[in-house]
Structures are given as structure tokens and as C-alpha cells.
Design goal:
The chain is an alpha/beta fold and 342 residues long. It is built from five helices and 39 strands. The strands form six sheets. Strands 8-11-14-17-20-25-28-31-34-37-39 form an eleven-stranded parallel sheet, with no helix packed on it. It has a ten-stranded parallel sheet with strand order 9-12-15-18-21-26-29-32-35-38, with no helix packed on it. The chain starts with a strand and ends with a helix. It is an enzyme of class 2 (transferase).
């Protein structure tokens, strides 16, 4: 499909500098784009590539327009404009309704006529699959679970009994929604499993990455609110609540019963302890450990950068001495006060 740059500008709310009639067929990165393709500049570290690109047009902010002599689409948020252009030029395939012959749909399940059930998928009794939903190959939808309208379970996705997935969601391969939470009680030297009786409730317009796991609650529900975006290999424990439009990069781990606010952002490998409260609009940088509640919006970090091993060993040795140094400092301060007669 080819569309003029003027039409793309109209769709994303940008302005054309140069030839509005240039035809765009696809999106591409700056260093590989060619005729008929549009690229974008959202990170100024790659500004040098703009002068060299062969793209038919480039999406950029007005301040960077001078770096590109060709046709440009000026937009205050190039990443957002590019995302919308890419979605328009490369739409997802339409769902083809029907059931694969190898799929198993148990009696009592409610599957909309417009839904797609892929090869070897299993839909248990009392489950609901709504209009236009796509249940990909090898997926499992448990007893009494619900998959909302136009939601796509790509492949090998598990949705446990009584869990609910909202509308317009995307669950990537291997996602697990509603596994048992990690709950055990000590009986002498043994661990006795605590039944996990809650559900997972996923709101509308949520994306859950490949091999990400969201555990069901112990008694209450684990809740992933509307608009949340989760990357691959994330662990969300039982009874966690994640607020609207929060985003998490890969390998984030959240321990049980923690509440995350709305519009938060967590970098890769962030670890969050259990029973904490994180305010709205909190950003935590990658590899940080959150061991206490965060009551105010802001940017937080606790990571130590990598350094040569010998230097780190010396630093670690000094860290072990901090308690002793603090004690000696308190004693010295007390002696100074006595000398001053305070």
C-alpha cells in the first residue's frame, strides 16, 4: 500500500516540509531506509545518520529539521508519529473466524462466531471468548475464564480458570496468566502449600510480553489495569496491583501484595519487594532494587555501575567497615561536644 506523505501528516497531525506528494510504502530505520520508505529520528545520538539516509522522508522535530535536506514530516513527538504511521502502513492481519479441526472446545464454553480458535488450542467449559478474539495455536483458556473482544493470544498462552482478559489486549507467546502464587506455610521442617483462590484481572488495551507470568491472588485478585504494557520475562506475584498505563521493561520482578500506581515506568531488571506502595508517576531506572514504599512521584535509582573486579573488592571491603566507621564517628562527635561543654 502506498500513501502520500501529506496523507500521513494529516493522520498524525504533523507538517510536511518539502514534497507532500512523495509516496510512502513502508517504514525503515535511518541507516537502511530507501525510496518509498519513511524513517524517524527520536534519539539525537543518531542525528548524524539523518544527513546520510536515503529515506524518502524522515519524521523529526523542528529543531532537528536543519540536519536533513530532503522531505521531512515535522512532528513534536517523532516516536509517536512513527508508531502510528507504522501501524497504518503495516496493519495486523484481520482475524479469520473459525475453529481449527484440532482445537478442543468443551461443551458449555461460549465462543463467538467471529472468534478464531487455532490449532491444538483448548477452551474449557464455562469459558468465554468474545467477538473477534484470536486464540492462537496451543493456547489454553481455563474453566470460567474470559477473553475479551478483539484480544489476541498469539501462541502457547495460558489463561487460568476464572481469570479475565479485557478487550483489545495482546498476549505474546508463552505468557502465563493465573499460575498459582508462591504461597507456603511452615510446618516444622516442611512447607505446606497455601491454596491460591484469587484470580487475575487484566484490563483493556494491555500488552503482556513473551514468557511473562502474572500469578493469581491468594484470596484477593491480582489486577493489571487498563493500558499497562509488560515486556518479556516479567514476574508479577500474587495480589499485586498495577495501575493504568504503567510500563515495565524485561525481567522486572514484583513480589506479592505490592501496589503500583498509574503511569509508572520501570527499567529492565528492576526488583520490587513485597507489601509496598508505589505512587503514581514514578520512574525507576534499570537494575534498581526497590525495598521500601515510594510515596512521591519522581525518578529513582539504586544501581551501582560495573567496575574492574579489584576495585569492586576494595569497595566491598570498605562497605563492610561502614558500621564500625559510623560508630567511631559518633564517639568522636560526642567527645567534641564534651570538649565544647555542650
Amino acid at each position: 500500500m502506498a500513501v502520500t506523505l501529506a496523507e500521513l501528516a494529516r493522520r498524525v497531525g504533523g507538517q510536511v516540509r518539502g514534497d507532500p506528494g512523495v509516496e510512502i510504502r513502508a517504514v525503515a530505520p535511518l541507516d537502511r531506509a530507501g525510496p518509498g520508505e519513511i524513517a524517524h529520528l527520536s534519539d539525537r545520538r543518531y542525528r548524524a545518520l539523518v544527513a546520510e539516509t536515503r529515506a524518502a522522508a524522515v519524521v523529526l522535530v523542528a529543531e532537528d529539521a536543519g540536519a536533513f535536506k530532503g522531505t521531512a514530516l515535522i512532528h513534536p513527538n517523532p516516536s509517536l508519529a512513527f508508531a502510528r504511521i507504522a501501524a497504518f502502513l503495516h496493519p495486523a492481519p484481520a482475524v479469520a473466524p473459525g475453529r481449527h479441526p484440532t482445537a478442543f472446545v468443551e461443551d458449555g464454553a461460549r465462543v463467538a462466531d467471529s472468534a478464531r480458535i487455532g490449532a491444538y488450542a483448548v477452551i474449557e467449559r464455562e469459558a468465554t471468548v468474545e467477538d473477534g478474539a484470536s486464540i492462537g495455536p496451543g493456547c489454553y483458556v481455563g474453566q470460567g475464564a474470559r477473553v475479551g473482544a478483539r484480544t489476541c493470544l498469539v501462541a502457547q498462552v495460558y489463561v487460568g480458570a476464572r481469570c479475565e482478559i479485557g478487550t483489545d489486549c495482546l498476549l505474546q507467546p508463552g505468557a502465563v496468566i493465573g499460575a498459582d502464587g508462591f504461597g507456603f506455610a511452615k510446618d516444622g521442617e516442611r512447607w505446606i502449600k497455601v491454596p491460591q483462590l484469587g484470580r487475575v484481572i487484566v484490563g483493556d488495551d494491555v500488552e503482556i510480553g513473551a514468557n511473562t507470568t502474572v500469578d493469581r491472588g491468594t484470596l484477593d485478585d491480582t489486577v493489571i489495569a487498563r493500558g499497562v504494557k509488560l515486556d518479556n520475562l516479567i514476574q508479577i506475584a500474587h495480589n499485586v496491583r498495577v495501575g493504568e498505563h504503567t510500563i515495565m521493561a524485561a525481567c522486572v520482578g514484583i513480589a506479592g501484595s505490592t501496589s503500583i500506581g498509574s503511569r509508572c515506568a520501570f527499567g529492565g531488571q528492576v526488583g520490587i519487594a513485597g507489601h509496598l506502595d508505589i505512587a503514581d508517576d514514578v520512574q525507576v531506572l534499570g537494575t534498581s532494587l526497590v525495598s521500601a514504599s515510594i510515596p512521591k512521584p519522581g525518578v529513582y535509582s539504586s544501581a551501582l555501575k560495573a567496575e574492574p573486579a579489584d576495585e569492586w573488592r576494595r569497595t566491598a571491603a570498605r562497605l563492610r567497615q561502614l558500621d564500625e566507621l559510623a560508630r567511631r564517628l559518633r564517639e568522636a562527635e560526642e567527645e567534641i561536644r564534651k570538649l565544647k561543654g555542650e
